[in-house]
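Practice set, problem 2.
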Amino acid sequence: MSRLLIVIIIAASLAVSGCSTRASASNAPAAPPAPEVSVITVAGEDTPIYAEYAAQTFARDMVEVRGRVDGYIEKRLFETGSDVKTGQPLYILDLRPYEADVQKLRGELSQSEASKEFASKQVALLQAEADLAQAQANRLKAQQDVDRLRPLVKEQAAPQQDLDNSLAALQANDANVRAKQAAVEQARLSTKAQIETSAAQVESQKAGLRSAELNLEYATIRAPISGRIGDSLVQVGGLVTRTSPQPLTTIVPLDVIWVRFKLSETEYFDYEERKAAGIKTIPLQLVLADGRVYPHAGRVENTVNQIDSKTGTIEVQATFPNPERTLLPGQFGRVRMWIEDRKNAMLVPQRAVQDLQGLQSVLVVGPENKVQARTIATAERVGQRWIVTKGLQAGDQVVVEGIQKAMPGSVVNPKPYEAQ
């Protein structure tokens, strides 16, 4: 009886133990699902390659506005920071002294022109010539008297005294004719000198009047070029002098805007080789300080004439259209210069590349969705992606998002990566 009871107890214990084991097995937690990661499938593509350089805008043709005559400013005709056109009035000085000079010189010129006109009529010369003609007529009469009396005196039909008087009169008229001829020559020379002097005086006074009129024009100070004007450094009522070291204001042309950046010696040689190969216009992009790409493409205009011995670089100057006048001198950014068009390049997002002690690697989803680590080599950066030269081939699935959840050897659930 006791033996039977022991058997029953043991059987019951085994039954209870078996039930407990089955219950524990049924209540065990299920294995966690594979983590989800975002991947891209690597494929070769053609892409342009750019190099980036720190750049700064500058005003190559900035003009300082200065006064060309002296005077006090009566009016200022512009607002600081506005766009002005060539020839637009900016300041008006006190015009009264210059208007008075113009009127005075106009009067003097009119007087000189009248003197020139009088001299050109040669009144004195005409009078001298008339006197000469009268003297010549008197001499002719005296000669006739002599010729008439000589035969009469020879025949004693007239007294010798009358002939002597006629000869004396003839000599006097000869002397008078010579005197009148000299007077005519003197009058001719004097008239010529007077005409030339009057003409020179007229030309001189015309030049003086033109100078006075220019000074009157300069008293209205105009914009020498088109561009954006700065603040006025001399206010209304201030004195403007032509010798002042301080300009009145400055004007900066904004369309086009100039940009300077620097190339190393090696990059400069590469640039020259591309030009020698027939690429005359190398396109440029300008990346602004906020990361936006400027919408207008630029071009290289020139390089300076020597290498900076301190930095081993050469300055390159480029222009960008600026029709909206959004770019101003002194702004910083980056210039992207086209290098080449790379064929069948492998590109992966920068965020997919891990860099540890100079070694770059990516995580690749292989067969059966197992994660593998691949060491890669990268070249140029294209936007937010790297060009991979070693370690990947077309068709590889590279993990872009969820890298923290993807450990080498683990199984993941890959999903296509959607770029933001």
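Problem 2, part (b): a different protein.
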Amino acid sequence: MRAPLLSAEREQDLARRWRDRGDQTALNELITAYLRLVVSMASRFRHYGLPVSDLVQEGCVGLMQAASRFEPDREVRFSTYASWWIRAAMQDYVLRNWSIVRTGTTSSQKALFFNLRRLRAQLGDVQEHASSAALAEIAQKFRAPERDVAMMAARLSASDRSLNAPLGENGDGEWQDLLAADEDDPEAAVMRARDGAARTRLVHDALGDLNERERLIINERMLTEEGTTLEMLGARLGISKERVRQIESAAMAKLRKALLARVPDPIAAGYIG
């Protein structure tokens, strides 16, 4: 912090020596002179609950990146250029470490993360949960979906919570007990398996109405995992692929007729819908 500030001419000279000759002494002087900029910017991110020392280290990484990319011929002060790299490095660190859940994966989400609280304060929305009017106005300002704004507001208003944390003081149950299961319940699973087996038997019986060549084409085209191409079946049967397509189309119509003969109303029988 006691390192002297650099004039524009001195910055240009140090940057050129580092860029052209890889002068480590010039780089050290340039970096040391602007460590105060890193410390100052780190104080702006301290309210995210992360160690200031870690923020300073990340800012130093950004400062080093700025020094490696700085073009002195553009006649821009190094401090102005480096500020963007320092801020970007700190913001990336905050997004990676503020929560165990990944936050701000898009540019609009990142902008919301770092500006939502300030904008709510400007709108006078100081309650714990953001009002719908404030969310709508902020969404319009950022040109983002209102649901994204609401989700970010909810993320910022609550800290991470373990799914194994008890629901109450007595320890009866955990938060994960309230999560909805994605899979079917046992009754639905049994019904699905029963219906699937019934449909399989029905299709197998209907295939008996087809001749041998039609069954082969339907099996290879529709009932195998990968599906055989028309060209491959044509070579196998000694016919053109167009003829295979015609046989397939006729076989599908015959199969449909056979299925409807066995189940006149598939919806009522529970095979469809």
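Answer key, part (b): The mean pLDDT is 81. The radius of gyration is 34 Å.
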